[in-house]
Every structure is written in C-alpha cells, then in structure tokens.
Specification:
Layout: E1 4-9, H1 26-39, E2 44-47, H2 57-71, E3 78-80, H3 92-99, E4 106-110, E5 113-117, H4 136-145, E6 151-154, H5 182-191, E7 196-200, E8 207-211, E9 214-218, E10 235-241, E11 244-250, E12 255-260
Parallel strand pairs: 1-2, 2-3, 5-6, 6-7, 7-9
Antiparallel strand pairs: 1-10, 4-5, 8-9, 10-11, 11-12
Helix pairs in contact: 1-2, 4-5
Bound molecules: fe (ii) ion.
Length: 280
C-alpha cells in the first residue's frame, strides 16, 4: 500500500517579537520550510493556523500577505485552518482570500488519507476564553459521521483537554487552551464511526495525549522560545504506511512517535466512579 506523507507547520506567528515568540524569525524559517518541502517527497502540507501575531487590521493584512507569499511557493497542495490570532482583526473569509485556499470546515482526501479540517469559532479574548459557536459541534459530528474510514482530524485548538502543567501560557489559563465544551467535543469524536487521530497547534508545545483510544497530537510553534530560549523551528512529518502512523517533529525540540492507524473504532473501558462511592 502506498505511503502518504504530509509536512505540518503551525503557529508561525509572523510579526513582532514578544518575550516568548521570535516573530522576526518567522519568514526566514518559513522560507526554509518551503525549500525543504519542495526538495522532498511529501504529498501535501498542512498549516495549523496562527500565521501571524495580530496588531491591527491594516498591519495584519500585510503580515498575512507576507506569510501567504511564502506558502504560495510550495510545490505541493497545501491545506489550512485559521487560529485565534488570524481572526483577531480579520475575518475567516479575509484569511481565505489572502491564502487563496479554503479555511472552513471540510473533508479532504490527501494521498490515501481522509482528513477532516474543523474550523469552529477560534475567537479568543482574555476574559472570555474559547467557546464553540452555534452549529460548530453539529458540523464536526456531520463531518466525522459521514464515513467510517480512519480519519485525521485537524483543528487549531487541541481537542483532548490535556494537562497544561508547565505550559508558559496555559498552566494558569487552562480555559484558553481548549474549548469550554471539550466534553461534548470528545463525545462527538467517540460517537463517530471512524477511528480518529487528532492534530492541532495553539498550545505551543509538542504533545501526545490518548483519550478513549483516540490519539491527539499537538505541534510546537515554528517560532516559540519558552522552552529552550531560542525559536523551536518546529515542523513535522506525518507518515501513514499501511496500519502505522509515524509522527516526527524536527527542530530544537524533537519528538517522534509511532501509533496505530486503526481501521476500526475502539473504546477504552469506561472509567470507574469515584472510589469514595464505595466501589472497588
Ligand atoms: Fe499560537
């Protein structure tokens, strides 16, 4: 069976330097990523959103255009979702126009792999945290429910609800790391007929969390510095070869994992009730 290889990059954060994001390094690092992809043998690129660090509508249009110009040099198909910084001052439609690619929720086949790109509301304010908009959850259930083939589920915000212990941004702000409706999202994934592997950005570190048999991967930001003091220069190759998925993160913070690319849905046994309830 043919192997499908996808290059992944996310949280590019082109723009101003901040205490933990080297925004000024984003375009050179992105240019190198594009050159490496074009010299390699991947079927497509997935970009996970937060292409810029937002400043103002006019400035964000310039920043987005500069990122889009780099991405347009890719010699392979590219697929995008948008993140909270992309929509802070610009609409999803404006992002799609600048990218010249869709950013809405959709199902796409890359190589031999069914991919669902989920674009719920990613609007984020410090006071409000992350919340789904009406229709977002139904849209996810519909896209996942359409098909029983194994599916790669891509979103900007992670959908595992994984611990943020030690995360510079989110240890003390867990409501900004995932959606308030995370339990309903996980239930929708569990109810879908397809086995799912989920892939996201947003939290600026690379993790693997497995919940109820569903692996959730997150990819470190291209320009994040909070772990090593230097830009992580993170990108990844996701390779699916028969019944096996290989995930390999390159840059300063390496992570490599091998997972089953399961053909059939499985569930973990339901957790016990609280021990205080008297059960053993
Ligand atoms: Fe980000």
């Amino acid at each position: 069976m043919a192997t499908t290889r996808i290059a992944v990059v996310g949280d590019i954060h082109h723009g101003q330097d901040t205490p933990t994001k080297r925004g000024s390094a984003a375009l050179p690092l992105l240019s190198r990523f594009v050159a490496e992809v074009n010299a390699g043998t991947v079927d497509a690129v997935i970009e996970l959103g937060d292409r810029i660090s937002d400043e103002s509508p006019d400035r964000d249009r310039v920043l987005q255009r500069q990122v889009a110009e780099q991405l347009a040099r890719l010699a392979v198909p590219r697929h995008h979702v948008s993140g909270n910084h992309d929509v802070a001052c610009l609409s999803l439609a404006e992002n799609a126009t600048v990218l010249d690619r869709p950013t809405g929720s959709r199902a796409v086949v890359i190589g031999r792999i069914r991919c669902v790109f989920w674009q719920p509301d990613v609007g984020l304010s410090r006071a409000r945290g992350l919340h789904l908009a009406p229709g977002d959850l139904d849209g996810l259930a519909r896209l996942l429910g359409d098909d029983d083939r194994p599916t790669l589920l891509i979103s900007h915000v992670p959908l595992s609800g994984h611990a943020q212990t030690g995360n510079y941004y989110f240890e003390r702000n867990p409501g900004h790391a995932t959606y308030a409706e995370i339990a309903s999202i996980r239930a929708a994934i569990a109810a879908a007929p397809c086995p799912v592997v989920a892939l996201a950005g947003h939290v600026h570190w690379s993790t693997l969390t497995i919940v109820d048999g569903t692996p959730h991967l997150t990819l470190q930001s291209l320009t994040e510095t909070f772990i090593s003091g230097e830009p992580a220069e993170a990108a990844a190759i996701l390779e699916i070869d028969g019944d096996v998925l290989h995930w390999s993160v390159t840059g300063r913070e390496l992570l490599s994992v091998t997972l089953p690319w399961a053909r059939a849905k499985s569930h973990w046994r339901a957790p016990l009730p609280p021990f205080e309830a008297g059960l053993n």
